[in-house]
Hints:
Elements: H1 5-15, H2 27-30, H3 32-38, H4 43-62, H5 65-72, H6 77-106, H7 113-130, H8 148-151, H9 154-157, H10 159-185, H11 192-217, E1 224-231, H12 245-260, E2 266-268, E3 277-278, H13 282-293, E4 298-306, E5 312-319, E6 325-330, E7 369-371, E8 374-380, H14 387-392, E9 400-405, H15 415-430, E10 434-438, E11 444-446, E12 452-455, E13 462-469, H16 476-480, H17 483-497
Parallel strand pairs: 1-2, 2-4, 3-4, 8-9, 9-10
Antiparallel strand pairs: 1-13, 4-5, 5-6, 7-8, 10-11, 11-12
Amino acid sequence: MKRHLPPLISGVALVFCFPTFDLYPLAWVALAPFLVSVYGMSPRNAFRAGFFMGVPYFFGTQYWIYHSINHYGGIPLLPSLAIVLLLSFYMSLYTAAFASLFSYKMSRSKLPAMLLAPLLWVCLEYLRSYALTGFPWSSIGYTQYKFLPVIQIADMTGVYGVSYLVVAVNGALADIFIARRRKRRMPLFSLTPTATGGVVLAAAILGILLYGHMRLNEKRPGAAMRVGIVQGNIEQDVKWDPAYQSEVTGVYKEMTVAVNDRRPDLIVWPETAVPFYFGADEKLTAELMDFQKGLDAYLLFGAVTVKADGRLANSAILLGRGGPALYAYDKIHLVPFGEYVPLKGALFFIDKLAAGIGDYVPGKEHIKAQTPMGKFGTLICYEIIFPGLVRKFYQKDGDFIVTITNDAWFGDTTGPYQHFSMAVLRAVENRKPVIRAANTGVSGFIDSSGRILKRSSLFQRQALTENVHTDSTRSFYSRWGDLFAYLSIVLCLLIFMA
C-alpha cells in the first residue's frame, strides 16, 4: 500500500485542479509524486500504480454522471455510483498504460521524464478522445482555462499542447529526484540530457508566455454585435410534461421580450428549449414563428425535430427577423446511453438508462448559419468538448461559436462548471468568441482569447446581454487540426521502436 500512496496523492490532487476548486497552479506539480514513484517499478507494478492514480482522478472529476443516472434513469443511488466507478476503472486504464510504458522506457533509456512523460500523456489523452465514441473529459490541459497567457498556444496545438506543457513541468520536477536514483544505478549516467532538457523547457515556457501576452493584446478582424441569452431554468422532470407546455413556452417568450428591449442582434435559447416537436406540431410551431415576427432580432433555439423517416433529431433552429427559419443543424455527436443506446440489441439490459430521454438519429453535416453578424456553427450539449469536431465547422471560415446545452442532467454538481470551462479552450483554439446558452446554467460569453466576459449562476432564471466582438481569424489549429498530437504519436512510436 505504501508504494501506491504517491499515485493516490497525485490522483486526488488533480481533482482540485478542475472546477469548481480551480486550484490550477497545483496541476504543475500534482503529477510529480506519481512519476517519481513509478520509476524503477516493473511495468506490471507501474500499471497497478497508474490505475490507483486514475481512479480518484477520474471519479473525482466525473462523479456528477451519477446524478443523471440516479435522478432521470431510475437507477438507485448506490448502483448509480457503481456505474460511475466502473467508468472510472475504464478511464484509469489509460493512466495505467501510461505508467507502465513510462516505467519501462525510463529504465531502459537515458531520456528525461520531462520529454517522455508529456509525449506519452498526450498520445493517451488523444486516444481517449476518440476510442469507443470518445470522452475527452478531465484532460489535464483544461485545468488551465484561467491561465490565459499559457493557453494561447492552443490556437496552434489544441488543448493537447497545454496538457503537454503541464505534464512536461511535472516531468522536470520528477527528474530532479529520479536523476539521483539513476546515478546510483548507473554511475556513468550523464546528467547532460536532463540539464539540457530543463534549459529548453524553461526557454519554451518563456516563449509561450511571450506569445500569450502578444495574443492577448492584439486586435483581430471582426465586428461588434449584441447578443442576448435566455436561461429559462426549467426543471428537467416537468420540461416535457404536457401540463406545463404553455408555462414553459411562456417563460421563454416573456424573458425574450425583456431581452429584446436591450436591442440585441441575436437571442439564444438553450438546447431543446421548446417543449414540442418543432415543425411537426404545426400549431405551436406557427405560434413561435408569429412570436418571432414581433422581435427585432434573430432567434436561435434548440428543439426536437422529426425527420422524413419519422425518427427524431436534436436540432438547433435559427429564425430570422420576420419569422422565417433560415438554418437547421442536427446534432452529430450523440450522447451514448443518453440520446441513443449503442448495440441496442446486444445491450438490452441498459435500455433503462435512456428511458424518457429519446433515441435520436445523428446529423451528418457540419453546417454553419450565415447572418449579417457573421457565420457561426452551433454545437449542441457535449459536442463542445470535442476539439476535432468543433474545428470542422471553422476550417475555412467563421466568425463566432454558439453552443446550446441542457446541463440540468448534471444537477448541482461540478459538471456544469467543468462543461463551461472546456468552451474556453474551443474559443482559443479556433479564435472565435463563444456564446453559451444553458437551460439551468452555466450560460455566458467568452471572447476569442478565452476571457470570460460574463456568466450566469446555476439554477437561476436569468437573461444575459453582452456586446461580443466577432473574430474572422482562421487559426493554425482550425486549418490543420491536431498536428501536434499526431507529431507526439509519431515521436512516441520512434522512441519505443529505438
